[in-house]
Amino acid sequence: MSDPILAQLQRDLILRPLVQHLELPPLQSPRDVYVALLRSIISQQLSTKAADTIYGRFMGLFPRSYPTPRRLLQLSEADLRGVGLSRQKAQYFTNVARFTLREKLRSLDWSTYSDAGIMDFLGQIKGVGPWTVQMILLFSLGRPDVFPVKDLIIAQSMVKLYGVEAQGRAQLARLEAIAEAWRPYRSTACRYLWRWHDQKKET
């Protein structure tokens, strides 16, 4: 097989059928990390449909549908809550905008940062936790070896596919151990797990 990523993942006999039969949508990266942070905050604890609706309303507040940090900071909490954001998420948006201006986020060369470095750097923003940064690494920056073990869909899919019976910390440790076989392409493996989950919902 010519593709080293697919060859590696298919060594896992449970993952192999997913790799062979599922088609992944193209990964469009790099993306604007600043906007991706805002989008990820909106998505926290919401369905995709609800998040898409709020995101569309939010982007409609800005000329050319781009939420520059300075313009975002000019909006009131009432403006942000008016598009569907909670009070807490409105504050998180403010935190992201201020951090973006202070750290010149949109002009950074992310290739100079390791995955761990980005986790530490963006994790300084209140409201931006490990899961959010992992989504940035995987979908916005195209990092190849990200494993968001606490992502609900990833965990549920692996528990079902691999018959994991452990709970709590023992379950997380087991999932981490399973994913070791996917290195250094854990990002692609996770995308197959998400796609498998979506396909099950569609059928």
Q: Give the N-terminus to C-terminus distance in angstroms.
A: 30 Å
The helicity comes to 55-70%
Shape: globular
Using the CA coordinates, give the radius of gyration. Answer: 18 Å
Structural class: mainly alpha
How confident overall, as mean pLDDT? Answer: 94
Described by strand count, sense and barrel closure, the largest sheet is: none
The CATH top-level class label of the largest domain: Mainly Alpha
> Number of folding domains?
2
Number of helices: 12
Q: Tell me the β content.
A: under 5%
Number of strands: 0
Order of helices and strands: HHHHHHHHHHHH
Low-confidence runs: none
CATH fold topology of the largest domain: Endonuclease III, domain 1
The CATH superfamily name of the largest domain is Hypothetical protein, domain 2
Task: Describe the structure concisely.
Helices cover 61% and strands 0% of the residues. It is mainly α and 203 residues long.
Description:
There is one protein chain. This protein has 203 residues and is mainly alpha-helical. It has two domains: 4-27 and 147-202, Endonuclease Iii, domain 2, CATH 1.10.1670; 33-140, Hypothetical protein, domain 2 (Endonuclease III, domain 1), CATH 1.10.340. The chain has twelve helices and no strands. It has helices at 4-9, 16-21, 33-43, 48-59, 69-74, 77-82, 87-103, 115-122, 130-140, 152-162, 168-179, 186-202. Helix 3 (33-43) packs antiparallel against helix 7 (87-103), helix 3 crosses helix 9 (130-140) and helix 10 crosses helix 12 (186-202). The radius of gyration is 18 Å and the shape is globular.
